[in-house]
Structures are given as C-alpha cells and as structure tokens.
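Annex B. Sample input.
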Amino acid sequence: MTTQPKEIGAPEAVPLVPEEAGIALARPGVRPFAIGAAVLAAALVPLLFKSFVTFQLTLVMVYALAILGLNLLTGFNGQFSLGHSAFYGIGAYTTAILMDRWDIPYFWTLPAAGGVCFLFGFLFGLPALRLQGLYLALATFALAIAMPQILKFGPLESLTGGVQGIVILKPDPPFGLPIDADQWLYYFTLAVLLVMFAAASNLVRSRTGRAIMAIRDHPIAAAAMGINTALYKSLTFGVSALYTGVAGALGAIAIQFVAPDSFTFLLSVSLLVGLVVGGVGSIPGCLVGGLFVLFVPNLSEAVSTGLAGAIYGVILLLVIFVMPSGAAGFARLAAVHLARFNQARNRFSDGRKK
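Annex B, continued. Sample output.
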C-alpha cells in the first residue's frame, strides 16, 4: 500500500485556535455570566476611580478596538500588516476635520471615519492581493511610513493643519447627566467597544467568518470549494481598516488633538505587539493587548527613564516566554490544567470513600 508523498517545501497550515475554544472548557451558562459581570465591573470603574484612571482605561479600550481590527486581518484571515497606524491616523483625522471644520457632532464622525477607512482599506487590499507574507508586510510598512509625510504635505496643510495638527474639544455629557466629560467619554467608548466586539464575534462565527478562516488555513482548498478568495481578502482588509479607523476616531476625541507624528510606524508595531500578547485569533485577548500597549511603556519609564526601552524589551521577552500563545492561550492552558486537577482530586476522593 502506497501513501501520497507530501509536497516538498509546502508546510502544513496550523490553524489558530478560535477564541471560543477556551470557553468550551466551561459550562454553557458561565460565559454569559462572565460577560455580564465584566460589563458591570467596567460600568462601575468611572464611579470608583479618578478622572486620569478613567482616561487611561478609555485609551485601553481604544487600543483594544484597534488591535481587534488588526486581529481580524492577521489572526483570522492570515494577512500580515505593518500599516495599521495609517488607518488609525485616517480615522483620527477624519473625526478631527469634521469636528473642527464643519462642527459635525462627534458621534456622527465615527461612522464617517469607519466608512472612509473601509474604502481606503478595500482599495489598498485590491493591489495587495498579489502579495503574501513578507511582501505584503513590506507593502503595508510603506503605507505606515508614507502616511505621516502625506499628512504634512503642503497642499493638504489647510485641511490637516500640517505639523501643528488639529485641536478639538472634548464632548460634554448629554441630557445634563451628573458626570464629567471623561466619565461620559468612557461610557461612550465602552458602548462602541461592546457593539463592535459583538459584531466581530458574530462575524467570526458566521458563514463569512468560516470562509475567511478557510482562506487563512488552506487558501488553495478554499478556492477549490468556490470561495472568492480575492473578494474576501479585500473585504477583510476593509473591515479591519474600519475597526482601526473607528478606534482612531475615538482616540482623537479622547486626546483632543491629532498630529502627523502621532501615527508613525511605531504605533503599528505597538498594535502588533498587543495582538501577539493578547493572543492571535482571540477576540477577548485584544483587551489584554490594549492594557499592555498603554501601561507597560509607562511602567518602564516609571522604573527608569534612561533605560525605559531596555526594560520594555525585557518585560516583552518575559511575557512571550511565559505566554508563547498570548494571554488567551495561557488562559486556555490554565483552564485545561485546572480541569485535570479537579478530575484527579475527584478520583482521589472517590477512591478514599471506597
């Protein structure tokens, strides 16, 4: 009996573990309870902490949303990107220009920023269809490098503000709510985050999501099954840019200022680091990535201003060494070990009773 020889140089695709794999270890009723408890705890944060902490956690949610956009492209579709700082900047500038030049209400600028970024992402994804792996990474790297220079371009200076940027006002709470502007923006960002996380979770579980992941795992087999790989790749690029653009819009409203040098290649690297730390292919892990992106650099500077970069690198190496699959993989592994420990303890208890 002969076996079919494997193709030389074609490594087998290793599918990423979906984010619901860790939840499957728990009982069905645990997940809604855990989500409800987390949302309730998040809603109480502005009432228990100072405004600066509330502002920091707002930025954590903004970064988590941007990382989720990158996750949809890289984690679920397998397209590697180093240019999401450009989409973040486009979303931020769309909101800033609409609010500063035309006095558009801040909440209307979010769909506008998302739509503009979706269009840019979809159009960029079309020529990038011929690129894969490192070549696609280089193309997106070029986008990240070019965007700050484009925002400083002379003919666009009247619109973008050039190197001076644009200053916008933080929105006041509506309906006379007895909270300050930071608390209201926190709740507004939390609501947007919940809606977009739920939409991403439904997308991943849908027929479209299965097609997107099939392209990631087995592109040739997916094409043979009739999946329009070119269309799905371009649409995924657009949706990923949409999520990152909405995050950029929220970030601009929170910080109240946009400038070209705020959206450099370093921001793309930070989002990629957050994706890896949180867990590639994990939706809840994006929140952990957002925490890492915001707090770890600040922690490094607090320890030593002169050695902040070295301390950040050491922390990142330790995190990757302890959690090679990210926080989501670490949580799944911990759940498996806990389940085995409980089984062993139950067997031991049953043996002593007998």
